[in-house]
Amino acid sequence: MRGDCYAAAMDSDVLDCQECGACCHSDLASSVRVTGDDYARLGDLAESLTVFIGNRCYMRLLGTHCVANTRDVDGRFGCSSYDRRPDVCRDLERGSSACRAERFNKLARTLVTTPIR
Q1: What is the pTM of this model?
Q2: 38, 66, 88, 112: least CB-packed within 10 angstroms?
Q3: 20 burial type by CB count under 10 A (0-12 exposed, 13-18 middle, 19+ buried)
């Protein structure tokens, strides 16, 4: 049984990204691909936010969450590179089936692994 947070995640008509953060978590270092255009958009942040695995670039993980993922003292999630984020992040539409799958699979983990900064 996954618990009430999963029921709420799946039943909510209004999904608030700042209360979730699930899409910013992964066990795979290669989960968020960064294209050449994405890297250029990241500008002076690119080197600190990305990692190359072989000849491919990805957003760097800190534990199991994207290094750009933040959480404030009220527990709300954010992104330190929101205006410059990669296309794969921009393309994930709030409330879409992909969004709901991220929430279903990762929501409990986000609340435990993202430190408040």
Answers
A1: 0.78
A2: 112
A3: buried
